[in-house]
Amino acid sequence: MNYFIPIVFMVCIYLLGSDSEGLVGKSLKFEKETSDSYVRVFSSPFTELTAFTVCLRAASELTRGYSLFSYASSRDTNELLIWYYANGGISLNLSSNETQFSLPKMDALLRHICVTWESTEGLVTIWENGKHSSQKIGGKGWVVKGSGQFILGQDQDSVGGGFDKSQSFVGEITDVHMWDFVLETSEIETANEGCFCTGGNIVNWGITSYESGGMVTIKDNNDCIF
Asked: Is residue 144 in a domain?
């Protein structure tokens, strides 16, 4: 007796828009330490945030600390900073309030990192490759102010500038999204698999406009299709 066995292929595609200025299917490659290599991403306007989710994929073999995601406002250049420590820790900085987590050290393999925060209870969670940390308390009652600038590749010591070579990122970054709410567990797990089809409503890798400076290469990748 002959049996027909169906073969099922799963294709996961980010449906993030068709704006030619977007970065869907693209990676940012920061080739070396510099004080002038950066990418500014232009967000949807917002007045303030009382919750957010930031997700991105990154790989780096640096053995020192660096900025993974920098948002500076006229109030504070560390209005929202996701910082990687040389020992493998990742911290969320909301102005002078820092919440640090111990995680495996970064390496040459792209990993999916998400940070969630909400103001009411101050709950902060780090997600790496779909697995979440224990929750910590940070920035309870805080509000992230709008009208600032989002920079990848550098830590801002002034809004849109003040870059320091010793804090610059070297490696690859892609799939950067930011929402003004905390994603559900299932949504973050799906995003890690490359199958979450709703881009960030604050920063959306597929449709955001951007500008770059210094030695940044924008290259094709296949991370959005599995």
From this structure: yes
List the structure tokens of 115. Answer: 């940070």
Question: Which tokens belong to 45?
Answer: 């306007």
Residue type for position 94: L
The helix (H) or strand (E) run that includes residue 127 is strand 123-128
Q: How many folded domains does the chain comprise?
A: 1
pLDDT digits (tens, 9 = 90+) for 10-30: 334 333 333 336 898 899 999
Note the pTM of the prediction, 2 decimals.
0.89
The sign of the dihedral angle between the CA atoms of 219, 105, 33, 146 is positive
Phi and psi torsions of 11, nearest 5°: -115, 120
17/14 Cα distance (integer angstroms): 9
The percent helix, strand, coil of the chain (3-state, each to 5) is 5, 40, 55
